[in-house]
């Protein structure tokens, strides 16, 4: 079951009504319901790996208590490393080792051929669990003593498939108390769901149908077509994942739980550091907290060289997090390399300072330059092999970049419409970049105008949406 | 809470009305299934010979060459279980029926429409033939079986360009312009077999039982069942 499936259209209202009408009595009942609903949601898509999710929840619950109540530091450290090892083991096995060793037939080969390649959401819930036990070890939080709120934290269905990777200190306090229906929060949630569906079904899915054939047969196309393909692919990835995140946050708000924002208009960034603070925010924060900060502290005596090594290692891991493929590693490494000028010529705090604001020629130039770099790097993300990515790039940087587009007439029309929708998306994000979410239309006082915007989005979904690519890209990570 | 639900419903109401209108408009586009269903209802009592089956029936058995009143009720990938349901649905109307022709090929018992890549055709049987077949909510709606742009194109094609989706003649036989013939038999056979979505013998018993049921029913009604084995090129056998 995905957020754009027919089943979910039935599942969500049913859960909403049961949650607020039948299980509203106290936090315990609400949590029991959320755990059951989340397990049903997960089992619907990945019954085979449900046991792994349940094991992860139970194991980390008791491990957290173990670390918290350990009498001495050595015991604490032992529990921590045991936890890190056992949490990483399934991730390493399913994501890296088994795919490598099971290309042939056999039990695992059959399982993989049947589409059960990876336990759904394993990268997300593993990182979430690692963050939880490390925070307990560092005495930033106390271990949760009640398994119900903890189970909701692990399994909560809006975020189980592709995050956000939620810190325990933000999530757990919300589910330890009884949730009371909040009208404004629910309305916010619905707005985010509409926006998420719009960007996923209209922009991401249509971009996928245009960019997909270009990536799989890049040799047949000229540079200009492939350049447009890379542009569309970047927006496919962005709209797919930001759309998913918006729907996840929106659905969660319907149940009275706030999740963190995962994207915040990243294409208006003027440097790579700002970009990563606006793109997949929950992963960036996780990586900064648990990889970059400890590593840069460890290498602090090497000053800028230590920082550069820390950044490169962090981004290599970001790449590797996406999968066991050289293309992802190069994708991560390149993003790490883009930080080097910032580290050499800027101050350390430039990594964390707020980006430029306002509308200036200088800012626009920087934005476009960064966008092009990110777009070309994204080719590695979308390719199956390194030679594929390099071949694609080689064609872009050839004289054929000045040739006319090689799209068929219907695809040309479709691409033109998509570029139009992408412009609309960018305008909305520009206007709303300082707000909590894209469709926060408080400035529009006229309710009819607000409703017209919602209906326009619904009509766009109905008449321009494509349900050919219902899967979310990040559901595979 | 109640205010929220009320406002959501009020917001959704025009959307649901729009969806209902679109569904209605899509169903009004004449197609092979709606056309044949209306023929069964209006003229079913006149047929003396009925041809059921898949594209082998639809494209190979032309009713024009029969000297009795004949109708071709075949459809692409119409499996034997579906033939049974159609016969069951319309048997009361087929008062004069004397012969039932069913083409059987060596793969007829091995595939089932609902497990084929064209399983979306099931909605045509539940919507137009009104056979009790649909097992998924999506099988009851035109809107849910094609991507939205396809439905948009279908609406524009019929309501603005006045092109319907009927590709058969008055006797139910496929019109030539719908046939996609190619001289490359190897590729055609391979493609055709993929379209059947055969996965071993899993449907054998069910499809055989469906045929036996039809034969028994016909025997009770003194209708002769004629099994036709259509010729097949060797590549079909090779890929099979």
The amount of beta strand of chain A, in percent, is: under 5%
Q: Could you tell me the number of beta strands of chain A?
A: 0
Low-pLDDT runs of chain B = none
Radius of gyration of chain A: 23 Å
Q: Which sheet architecture does the biggest sheet of chain B show?
A: 4 strands, parallel
Please outline the major beta sheet of chain A: none
Distance between the termini of chain B: 60 Å
Q: What's the helical proportion of residues of chain A?
A: over 70%
Number of strands of chain B: 4
Return the structural class of chain A: mainly alpha
Most extensive chain-chain interface? A-B, 19 and 17 residues
Give a description of the structure:
- The complex is a heterodimer of chains A (477) and B (240).
- With 477 residues, chain A is mainly α.
- Chain A contains 19 helices and no strands.
- The longest helix of chain A has 34 residues, at 183-216.
- With 240 residues, chain B is of the alpha/beta class.
- In chain B, α2 packs parallel to α5 (122-129) and α4 packs parallel to α8.
- The radius of gyration of chain B is 20 Å and the shape is globular.
- The interface between A and B is medium-sized, with 19 and 17 residues.
Keywords:
heterodimer, A: 477 residues, mainly alpha, B: 240 residues, alpha/beta, 4-stranded parallel beta sheet, 9 helices, 7% strand, globular
List the helices and strands and how they pair.
The complex is a heterodimer of chains A (477) and B (240).
Chain A: H1 6-22, H2 27-46, H3 50-69, H4 73-101, H5 107-113, H6 122-137, H7 147-155, H8 157-160, H9 168-175, H10 183-216, H11 223-254, H12 272-278, H13 281-298, H14 303-322, H15 326-345, H16 361-382, H17 386-396, H18 409-431, H19 447-464
Chain B: H1 2-27, H2 32-43, E1 49-51, H3 55-60, E2 70-72, H4 80-90, E3 99-103, H5 122-129, H6 148-159, H7 185-196, H8 204-220, E4 224-228, H9 234-239
Parallel strand pairs in B: 1-2, 1-3, 3-4
How do you describe this structure in short?
Chain A is mostly helical. Chain A is 70% helix and 0% strand. Chain B is of the alpha/beta class and 240 residues long.
């Amino acid at each position: 079951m995905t957020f754009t499936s027919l089943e979910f259209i039935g599942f969500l209202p049913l859960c909403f009504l049961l949650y607020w009408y039948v299980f509203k009595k106290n936090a315990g009942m609400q949590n029991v319901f959320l755990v059951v609903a989340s397990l049903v949601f997960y089992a619907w898509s990945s019954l085979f790996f449900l046991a792994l999710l349940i094991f992860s929840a139970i194991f980390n619950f008791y491990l957290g208590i173990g670390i918290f109540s350990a009498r001495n530091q050595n015991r604490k450290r032992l529990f921590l490393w045991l936890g890190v090892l056992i949490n990483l083991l399934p991730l390493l096995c399913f994501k890296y080792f088994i795919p490598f060793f099971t290309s042939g037939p056999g039990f695992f080969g059959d399982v993989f051929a049947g589409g059960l390649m990876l336990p759904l959401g394993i990268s997300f819930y593993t990182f979430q669990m690692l963050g939880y036990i490390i925070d307990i070890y560092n005495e930033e939080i106390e271990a949760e003593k009640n398994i119900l709120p903890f189970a909701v934290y692990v399994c909560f269905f809006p975020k189980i498939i592709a995050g956000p990777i939620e810190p325990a200190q933000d999530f757990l306090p919300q589910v330890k108390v009884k949730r009371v229906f909040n009208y404004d929060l629910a309305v916010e949630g619905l707005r985010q769901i509409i926006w998420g569906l719009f960007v996923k079904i209209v922009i991401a899915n249509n971009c996928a149908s245009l960019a997909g054939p270009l990536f799989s047969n890049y040799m047949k196309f000229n540079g200009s077509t492939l350049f447009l393909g890379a542009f569309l692919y970047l927006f496919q990835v962005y709209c797919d994942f930001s759309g998913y995140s918006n729907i996840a946050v929106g659905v969660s708000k319907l149940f009275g739980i706030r999740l963190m924002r995962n994207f915040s208009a990243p294409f208006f960034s003027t440097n790579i550091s700002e970009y990563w603070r606006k793109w997949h925010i929950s992963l960036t924060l996780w990586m900064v907290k648990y990889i970059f900060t400890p590593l840069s502290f460890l290498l602090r005596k090497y000053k800028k060289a230590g920082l550069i090594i820390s950044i490169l290692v962090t981004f290599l891991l970001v790449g590797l997090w996406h999968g066991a493929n050289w293309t992802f590693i190069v994708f991560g490494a390149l993003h790490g390399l883009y930080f080097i000028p910032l580290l050499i010529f800027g101050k350390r705090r430039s990594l964390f300072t707020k980006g430029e604001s306002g509308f200036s020629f200088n800012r626009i130039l920087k934005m476009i330059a960064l966008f092009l770099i990110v777009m070309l790097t994204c080719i590695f993300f979308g390719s199956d092999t390194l030679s594929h990515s390099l071949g694609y790039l080689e064609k872009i940087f050839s004289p054929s970049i000045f040739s006319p587009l090689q799209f068929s007439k219907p695809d040309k029309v479709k691409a033109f419409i998509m570029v139009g929708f992408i412009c609309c998306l960018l305008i909305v994000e520009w206007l709303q970049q300082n707000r909590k979410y894209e469709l926060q239309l408080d400035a529009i006082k006229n309710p009819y105008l607000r409703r017209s915007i919602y209906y326009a989005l619904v009509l766009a979904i109905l008449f321009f949406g494509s349900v050919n690519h219902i899967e979310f890209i990040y559901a595979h990570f | 809470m109640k205010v929220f639900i009320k406002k959501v419903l009020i917001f959704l109401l025009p959307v649901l009305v729009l969806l209902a209108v679109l569904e209605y408009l899509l169903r009004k586009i004449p197609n092979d299934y709606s056309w044949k269903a209306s023929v069964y209802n209006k003229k079913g009592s006149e047929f003396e010979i009925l041809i059921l089956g898949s594209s082998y029936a639809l494209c190979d058995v032309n009713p024009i060459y029969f000297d009795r009143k004949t109708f071709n009720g075949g459809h692409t990938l119409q499996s034997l279980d579906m033939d049974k349901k159609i016969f069951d649905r319309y048997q009361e109307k087929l008062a004069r029926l004397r012969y039932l022709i069913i083409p059987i090929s060596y793969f007829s018992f091995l595939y089932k429409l609902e497990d084929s890549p064209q399983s979306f055709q099931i909605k045509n049987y539940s919507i137009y033939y009104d056979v009790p077949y649909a097992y998924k909510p999506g099988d009851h709606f035109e809107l849910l079986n094609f991507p939205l742009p396809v439905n948009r194109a279908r609406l524009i094609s019929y309501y603005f360009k006045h092109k319907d989706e009927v590709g058969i003649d008055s006797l139910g036989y496929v019109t030539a312009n719908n046939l996609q013939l190619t001289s490359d038999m190897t590729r055609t056979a391979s493609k055709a077999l993929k379209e059947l979505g055969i996965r071993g013998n899993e449907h054998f018993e069910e499809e055989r039982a469906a045929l036996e049921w039809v034969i028994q029913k016909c025997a009770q009604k003194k209708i002769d069942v004629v099994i036709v084995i259509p010729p097949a090129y060797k590549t079909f056998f090779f890929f099979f």
